[in-house]
Amino acid sequence: MEARRALIRRAVNACCSKQGFNYIDGKRCEPTEPKQPIKVIEPATGLLLCSFPSSGERDVANAVASSKRAFAQWSQTSCVDRGRILMKAGSKIRDNLDFLAHLEVKDNGKPIWEARVDILSCADAFEYFGGVIPSIAGQYIPVEGDSFALISREPLGVVAGIGAWNFPLQTCTWKVAPALACGNTFVYKPSPLTPMTALALADILVEVGVPKGAYNVIQGDGDTGSLLCYHPDVAKVSFTGSVSTGAKVMAAAAAGIKKVTLELGGKSPLIIFEDADLKNAVKATLMANFLTQGEVCSNGTRVFVQKGIYKEFLKNLIEATNKLKIGDPFDEDTTVGATITKEHAEKVLSYIESAKSEGATVECGGERCLLPSPNDGGYYLSPCVLTSCTDDMKVVKEEVFGSVLSLLTFSEEDEVITRANATNFGLAGGVFTKDIQRAFRVVKRIQAGTLWINTYNLYPPFLPFGGYKQSGLGRENGTAVLEQYTQTKTVYVEGGDVDCGPLYQE
Ligand code: NDP
User: Fold this and answer.
1) Residue 290 and residue 299: Cα distance in Å, rounded?
2) Which of 198, 152, 206, 203 has its CA nearest to residue 176?
3) Rounded to an integer, what distance in angstroms lies between the CA atom of residue 407 and that of residue 405?
């Protein structure tokens, strides 16, 4: 076991220290026109993981040109062959599970058990889209007489993907797997905080038979992302990140009349009624708030608890929260890993300070925990439960993107629905109750793209995911995403003579 771990550690270190963090035309390469250096810090230790230059206009153009060349071949590959290749990618990801999970932890700082779950869901995505794509057929529509129309869905061309840092490979895979399945090619720009696993994926895709250039990776900061969005040969942009950057991406796409998918932030409600199964409600509240250090877009951070069970729920929640184990994310029993950066940790702590100044009570957590060397440079925050919260507090209104849960009480169903919907976000939500009619009434009225009844934060790639309101545009996953990576072509076939009325005289 120890020997295997050492082997994986060596492979991970080799991957991070190898030169060339872009991946174009089937190989890792340096930018030809290096811009400002990016230093990637390992969240678990605070030490330098790797550094590379940001990519500028010429390198973005090279990546897009390479994907454009590959499009000619990949888009003409039969859907069965594309599907088979993507299924192989899924298996290859499973074969490399531990390597990819360790690489993800190096980049992101999340606990290793969670990273394994994320990586397996990436394998699921390739297998699902590989399996589903051969069954996507067009339509034959009779028109009149012997005339008919053929409706087909065609790929868009080169798609650009831009990702956030909280689920680095999953964010990438949710875009790349369906886009490739539909016959597009792809240029992906990871977050500069987490550049590694999207790069490792490139090797896997080439190994299983995706043509070189069909998936390229270009590293860089927001400027690189912007260059990609404005590139005239990019047909569509699929973005995951904050609302403010999403608006910029949408403006860039608008300038070129490009299609766009936006997966943005959230401030989702989790509503727990008095008749709920208390233990399950507590478990789901942990899942809704404390996975990946709370850095999860769909988190149910506004936890509304009906007054009759509030005291008991709070007691159980605090007990469960205090049992979470903050530690080195590579330890198998760690449940709370390292915050992505010092700056982000400070932002999360500042939300807790603002909550206190507005009258909230910290029931537990909300502090930096110092771990022994080599983790003493990491930012480990204890999961925080806030009570005495009101709907107008900053911490209750804004996305914190950290382990900070605001507990709120309610009396009536109508009241809690109104309060749950009083936000510009609409990514997700949850309801706990044993009353099935109430559960359906509530989810019908909550304005959000994904709702869970009696669970939280589960999103297998065969279910559509995306936001209402400012949480996004378009959907990822499920068959719904295939619409987002294809365009409809209508072919009208005349079955007889052309009838042009009085226009033509014999
Ligand atoms: P950001 O919006 O700051 O950045 C996202 C990506 O966009 C980064 O790669 C960033 O590079 C890049 N970028 C910045 N400016 C531009 C630009 N003008 N044009 C193109 N790209 C640009 O988000 P974070 O990375 O901080 O991620 C956190 C946010 O993502 C949270 O709001 C969270 O809710 C959301 N999110 C949503 C998910 C969903 O599925 N709905 C899933 C995961 C996260 P750089 O870092 O250099 O600025």
Assistant:
1) 8
2) 198
3) 6
**Cβ-Cβ contacts under 8 Å for 287 (sequence gap 6 or more):** 455, 456, 457
State the DSSP string of 241-258. S-HHHHHHHHHHHHHTT-
Q: Please state the atom number of ligand 1 nearest to the C-alpha of residue 297.
A: 34
Task: Report CA(248)–ligand 1 centroid distance (Å).
Answer: 11
**What does the block give as tokens for 142?**
């009779």
Q: Is the dihedral of CA 168, 169, 170, 173 positive or negative?
A: positive
Q: How far apart are CA 353 and CA 389, in angstroms?
A: 13
Q: 15, 172, 297, 389: which is the annotated catalytic residue?
A: 297
Bridge-based pairing state of the strands 368-369 and 361-364: unpaired
pLDDT digits (tens, 9 = 90+) for 257-293: 999 999 999 999 999 999 999 999 999 999 999 999 9
Q: If you measure from the C-alpha of residue 241 to the centroid of ligand 1, how many angstroms do you get, rounded to a whole number?
A: 3
> What confidence tens digit (pLDDT) does each residue in 370-391 have?
999 999 999 999 999 999 999 9
Residue 297 annotated to the active site: yes
Supply angle C-alpha 234, 68, 236, rounded to 5: 20
pLDDT tens-place string over residues 301-347: 999 999 999 999 999 999 999 999 999 999 999 999 999 999 999 99
